[in-house]
């Protein structure tokens, strides 16, 4: 029945539309489709500068850190715009793309008239109808597979997992189909699908609802992964992910949905392969993403008062890493601290450590330090839950030891 629905929708839409890295030459296997789009848009770099449509973002926009600035968020906040909560920024980006391209559709549990478990799809069913905003049964493996099939036929589906932990039920579809079909079909099929949803350690959500699954999906060939941390980059990454011809997993954090920020009124699209310079510094490079960005910035205030000048980078692109931005920072500070909420064993930090050691080992004056969550199921008790996650005081101590 669902297949028939999407077959009919596809027909109506068709009628309406007549081994080692060299830091100096990083080859990117993803993101080509964004530069091939003919729609008019601008690409906003992490430092706040705008790249015009004529540039078409044909390659990764790279930049070395040369100037002092508070953050890209502060840069955007000083410009005219409108204030949005993070979930509203995701919703706005999604709505704009659905307006722009009738191939874009949404599916998942309660995404329709209920508006999604975190209200990211609020109001979309009323505006676009039940065929483009499809409520599904509680069957993640089935509707994720349906989304992949829809992408193969020319649609651009966004699949919402009510919780990222639930998408483990669809791991076979994401791995064997979503990540591989473009290759195994000899390029006959593109899989322009976005898989998104909330995850991370919340406030006493229990072990099964507090999982960080970045490391689970990181090893799948053909998958691109990004993590949003502000309303500004949430909207920009959402739009870029929808326009990409590659399958993209967008990680959102349950504790960041109500974060408020002023974002530009004009349309912007961020790069899926670029890190964000949050705070330029000289003494140590701190690499982080998602919720840990705010723990790091809290620690940075203490570090500055102690006489340290940390450089903070939101890596944002979890696969592939932006080795240009990271490499430039390592060459300047010669010390690296990685702060993540992912588990220590086999996590994003482990992969990032390996990449830095492989490419920039000669520039390091000290071993890389990685602060990760403990390898235990997240406890329900609030006090124990905090103990499993990296806290700002630990970041301060780690920097002090690194800089001795």
Automatic annotation (TrEMBL):
<keyword id="KW-0670">Pyruvate</keyword>
<protein>
    <recommendedName>
        <fullName>pyruvate dehydrogenase (acetyl-transferring)</fullName>
        <ecNumber>1.2.4.1</ecNumber>
    </recommendedName>
</protein>
<dbReference type="Pfam" id="PF02780">
    <property type="entry name" value="Transketolase_C"/>
</dbReference>
<comment type="subunit">
    <text>Tetramer of 2 alpha and 2 beta subunits.</text>
</comment>
<keyword id="KW-0560">Oxidoreductase</keyword>
<feature type="domain" description="Transketolase-like pyrimidine-binding">
    <location>
        <begin position="84"/>
        <end position="259"/>
    </location>
</feature>
<keyword id="KW-0479">Metal-binding</keyword>
<keyword id="KW-0934">Plastid</keyword>
<keyword id="KW-0786">Thiamine pyrophosphate</keyword>
<dbReference type="InterPro" id="IPR009014">
    <property type="entry name" value="Transketo_C/PFOR_II"/>
</dbReference>
<dbReference type="GO" id="GO:0004739">
    <property type="term" value="F:pyruvate dehydrogenase (acetyl-transferring) activity"/>
</dbReference>
<keyword id="KW-0630">Potassium</keyword>
<dbReference type="InterPro" id="IPR005475">
    <property type="entry name" value="Transketolase-like_Pyr-bd"/>
</dbReference>
<keyword id="KW-0809">Transit peptide</keyword>
<dbReference type="InterPro" id="IPR029061">
    <property type="entry name" value="THDP-binding"/>
</dbReference>
<dbReference type="Pfam" id="PF02779">
    <property type="entry name" value="Transket_pyr"/>
</dbReference>
<dbReference type="GO" id="GO:0046872">
    <property type="term" value="F:metal ion binding"/>
</dbReference>
<dbReference type="GO" id="GO:0009507">
    <property type="term" value="C:chloroplast"/>
</dbReference>
<dbReference type="InterPro" id="IPR033248">
    <property type="entry name" value="Transketolase_C"/>
</dbReference>
<comment type="function">
    <text>The pyruvate dehydrogenase complex catalyzes the overall conversion of pyruvate to acetyl-CoA and CO(2). It contains multiple copies of three enzymatic components: pyruvate dehydrogenase (E1), dihydrolipoamide acetyltransferase (E2) and lipoamide dehydrogenase (E3).</text>
</comment>
<keyword id="KW-0150">Chloroplast</keyword>
């Amino acid at each position: 029945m669902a297949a028939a629905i999407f077959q009919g929708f596809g027909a109506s839409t068709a009628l309406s539309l007549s081994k080692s890295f060299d830091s100096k030459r990083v080859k990117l296997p993803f993101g080509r489709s964004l530069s091939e789009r003919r729609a008019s848009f601008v690409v906003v770099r992490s430092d706040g500068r705008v790249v015009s449509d004529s540039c078409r973002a044909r390659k990764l926009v790279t930049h070395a850190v040369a100037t002092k600035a508070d953050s890209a968020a502060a840069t955007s906040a000083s410009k005219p715009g409108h204030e949005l909560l993070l979930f509203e920024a995701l919703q706005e980006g999604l709505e704009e793309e659905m307006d722009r391209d009738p191939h874009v559709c949404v599916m998942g549990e309660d995404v329709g008239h209920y508006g999604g478990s975190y209200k990211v799809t609020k109001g979309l069913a009323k505006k676009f109808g039940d065929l483009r905003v499809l409520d599904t049964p509680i069957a993640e493996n089935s509707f994720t597979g349906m989304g992949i099939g829809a992408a193969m036929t020319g649609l651009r589906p966004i699949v919402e997992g009510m919780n990222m932990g639930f998408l483990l039920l669809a791991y076979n579809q994401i791995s064997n189909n979503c990540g591989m079909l473009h290759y195994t079909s000899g390029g006959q099929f593109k899989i322009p699908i976005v898989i998104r949803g909330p995850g991370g350690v919340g406030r006493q959500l229990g072990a099964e609802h507090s999982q960080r699954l970045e490391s689970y999906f990181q090893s799948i060939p053909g998958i691109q992964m990004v993590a949003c941390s502000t309303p500004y980059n949430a909207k920009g990454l959402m739009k870029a992910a929808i326009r990409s011809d590659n399958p993209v997993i967008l990680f959102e954090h349950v504790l960041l949905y109500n974060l408020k920020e002023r974002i530009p009124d004009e349309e912007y699209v961020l790069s899926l392969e670029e890190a964000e310079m949050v705070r330029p510094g000289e003494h140590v490079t701190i690499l982080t993403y998602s919720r840990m960005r705010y723990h790091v910035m809290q620690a940075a205030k203490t570090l500055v008062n102690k006489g340290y000048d940390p450089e903070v980078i939101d890596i944002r692109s979890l696969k592939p890493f932006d080795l240009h931005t990271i490499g430039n920072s390592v060459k300047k500070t010669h010390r690296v601290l990685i702060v993540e909420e992912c588990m220590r064993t086999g996590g994003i930090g482990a992969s990032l450590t390996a990449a830095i050691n492989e490419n920039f080992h000669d520039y390091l004056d000290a071993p890389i330090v990685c602060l990760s969550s403990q390898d235990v199921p997240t406890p329900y008790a609030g006090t124990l839950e905090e103990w499993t996650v990296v806290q700002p005081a630990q970041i301060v101590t780690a920097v002090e030891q690194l800089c001795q």
